[in-house]
Write a structure and sequence with these properties.
alpha/beta; Nucleotidyltransferase, domain 5; five-stranded mixed beta sheet; binds 5'-O-[(R)-(carboxyoxy)(hydroxy)phosphoryl]adenosine; binds zinc ion
């Protein structure tokens, strides 16, 4: 099976071709039976192209929706062409077109949706609409299609911080979410205060690697609350007040690195504590970290270590960093598992506030 996927929900224009192959069945007569998760297929990414708009948005310190849409319009045909060429596929051989339907910026989503509708009409193929958050979740299935349930997903991106429990394929329960800023948003806003540029996550974590995480005592919001929700706006404000009181922190290389490390550690501590507690309560066999912030080294390492130590029976999954931030390969994998919801090009529209449940 060949799926061509398109992603334009935010500031990356992405396209991918995924080949889905059945797992080889043991020769008959061996008595071996293939069942359950072992029957799941093998995914081969034939091509995955991402055109980033970072340079366009960087001067504004955040994504400007109208500029994002304009760039998608300009880049998507080129990204599509490059993907098809790299994948060495003929368009008529595609089985499905997949496209991110939401959540995201409506005028950005509409570029991908319109393109997918055009392809669906011209090629007479069905279109699989994909939830962007589920796309992040399935970035962990690319190499590990035999994932054991229950799976506790911690999705941390620029727009979302969510704990999502999957008891089986197709079942999603929202266990907790942020009440204000998403983790990635907090990174971006603190980076803006420190004039480190956009996107903030990579810039802050690069400096944090050289800093002392114990230097500044920052709050761990909601770490002990008896629910699985998050809140990061207070942490951001704590950084703001600290900088107002001691503006010299931002001017000194060493203290700037220490502040970045202390801030990053506060976010990591909260995410690790809450994820671990939820994984225990729900008896997770797999804990899967995904979303742009999953590229963060401290978060990857500390969550992995905590699970190994406190929950040795669970397996930890995190995508390759190239699949942490937005891409279309993850949209294609998610589409495969959701192919029963394929629709005609006539019945497809963007849903900017689409939720996972
Ligand atoms: O998933 P994503 O590419 O887009 C959304 O769906 O939002 O996530 C982007 C977010 C940005 O906020 C960015 O600052 C953050 O992921 N990010 C990081 C790192 N790399 C990207 N945050 C912390 N550390 C990183 N290394
Ligand atoms: Zn994303």
């Amino acid at each position: 099976m060949l799926i061509l996927a398109i992603e334009t929900s935010c500031d990356e224009t992405a396209c991918a071709v995924l080949e889905v192959k059945p797992r080889t069945v043991p020769p008959s007569g061996t008595g071996a039976r293939v069942k359950g998760s072992a029957r799941r297929p093998i995914f081969h990414v034939r091509a995955s192209v991402v055109a980033s708009q970072i340079k366009i948005h960087a001067p504004y310190g955040g994504v400007v929706p109208t500029l994002a849409a304009r760039e998608h319009v300009k880049n998507l045909p080129l990204v599509f062409k490059k993907t098809v060429r790299q994948a060495r596929v003929k368009l008529k051989d595609l089985d499905y077109i997949a496209v991110t339907q939401g959540p995201g910026l409506v005028i950005a989503l509409l570029v991908g949706i319109s393109f997918a509708r055009g392809l669906g009409y011209a090629l007479n193929k069905k279109i699989i609409p994909v939830n962007h958050i589920k796309g992040h979740i399935f970035s962990n299935w690319m190499l590990n299609s035999a994932v054991q349930f229950p799976v506790l997903n911690i999705v941390v991106s620029g727009g979302h911080t969510e704990l999502i429990l999957m008891k089986r394929l197709g079942s999603y329960a929202l266990i907790g979410e942020t009440r204000d800023d998403a983790a990635g948003e907090a990174f971006d806003k603190v980076a803006k205060m420190l004039t480190l540029g956009y996107p903030g996550g990579p810039a802050v974590s690069k400096l944090a690697a050289r800093g002392d995480a114990k230097r500044f005592n920052l709050p761990r919001p909601m770490i002990a609350s008896d629910n699985y929700d998050f809140s990061f706006s207070g942490l951001k404000t704590a950084v703001l007040y600290l900088l107002r009181k001691h503006p010299d922190i931002a001017r000194n290389k060493k203290s700037l690195a220490d502040l970045c490390a202390s801030f990053e550690q506060a976010i990591v501590d909260v995410i690790v504590a809450k994820t671990l507690r939820a994984a225990k309560e729900y008896g997770a066999k797999t804990v899967a970290l995904s979303g742009g912030v999953s590229a963060n080294r401290r978060l990857r390492a500390e969550l992995e270590r905590a699970i190994e130590k406190k929950l040795p029976e669970a397996r930890f999954l995190v995508p390759d960093t190239s699949l942490s931030t937005d891409n279309a390969a993850m949209i294609a994998v998610s589409a495969f598992f959701n192919r029963s919801s394929a629709v005609s090009w006539k019945h497809l529209d963007a849903i900017p506030n689409l939720s996972v449940v």
